[in-house]
Automatic annotation (TrEMBL):
InterPro entries: Fe-S_cluster_ET. Transmembrane segments: none annotated. GO terms for molecular function: iron-sulfur cluster binding; metal ion binding. Signal peptide: none annotated. PANTHER family: FERREDOXIN. Keywords: Electron transport, Iron, Iron-sulfur, Metal-binding, Transport. The keyword rRNA-binding does not apply. This is Ferredoxin.
Amino acid sequence: MRVKFDRDTCVGMYQCVAEWDAFEKNLNDGKADLRGSEEEDDDVFVVEVPDGEEFDAKFAARVCPVDAIEVYDDDGEQLV
């Protein structure tokens, strides 16, 4: 499972930070950062979800008010 995070879309509500430890506040930019991710495209970051953290990753995506977070299964199918 992997997460795709569009940081440009992020508005800094930080609801994802409260739901999954992989997200952290970046108060200088007023946006969240996805720890351990790689930049796939301009301001689009991806990271593999560690075992046991799938629920938290999905919940972080669901609570994002601007849908900046997407979750994909191992086959590339979007789950959230």
